[in-house]
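Much of the work behind modern protein science is quiet bookkeeping, done one molecule at a time. The protein below has been through that process, and both of its lines are reproduced in full.


***
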Amino acid sequence: MTAPPTGYHLLVPPGWRRFTADLEGKQQLIALASAKLKPLGRPDLDAQVRTMIEQQWSRLAVLRADGVYMPGDDEDLPVTPMTLAVLRQVARPGTTFADRLQELARTATTPIETPLGVVHRWETSERSTGELEGSSARIIGYGFPVPGERADRGAVLLVSIPYPNDADREIVDALVELADTIAETFRWR
């Protein structure tokens, strides 16, 4: 029997940063966002972004997020409208990690055989309402069971790609392909 993994590796595009899904990570992201918005002279926009970050971080805490990956502060690289969160998940007693994924995905997952084992993938779309009406998000999830005898735990890579409703579908599809490519780099360590 081998020891259970102690963490994971994930390759992301150049210029991306990892934010911890805790108070420190939230404060770092708010500071980064405020610094980028300050030259625009729009305190109202800064307040909206702060509120959105607060809401997302609350949701990430409920989902047991480990880390959040997104384009950082490298001005020389294009901004990719995509956020990745890694969630550590444990199924309820008497159920499996695959069962937990069904609850989280709220749609059917597709099991994909890989050299590392089965990876479960799903994809959904969400239309925004309220202040964000006119935009949508493509959500792609990937479930990576912890290798070994216990089938009740794993990690979920949850990718959110926001876009305006009139966006070119080829661009959105290319971002989904980028998400698939990043997910292929996930490895337990």
